[in-house]
Amino acid sequence: MIIKVQPDKQKSNALKKMAMITLQRLDETDTVKYPTNTLNDYYDIIHKLMEAITLAKGIKIKGEGAHKELIDYVTTLLNLSEQTEQFLQQMREYRNRIAYEGFTIHKNYIELNKDEILKIVTTLSDAQE
Predict the structure, then answer these.
(1) β strands within the chain, DSSP E
(2) Tens of pLDDT, residues 43-52
(3) What is the pTM of this model?
């Protein structure tokens, strides 16, 4: 559910800062050795950046299906491609399966998608006001 709130630049900036700290930690980690944790961290970074964008605009998304709706909202807002939206939804689904089913990610997923993930992170980071 999308809710109009007071724009919160301070919280928006704090979320972006936390995302960048996690990204820095990932740069210092053997991400291929820990692919499941790496996917979790990348998803967390992307989620924080998307939330930072919406909070800066006075939008809060919460409730059942909030992560899916957040991805839909931000990809539309930033005019990102449908492939990017589908990729982010797939990451969300993997992250949920990791959290709730003990699903593991193969190292090939990280190797094959790292550049795309970092491109999305850059796009979201640049979009945050």
Answers:
(1) 2-4, 59-61
(2) 999 999 999 9
(3) 0.95
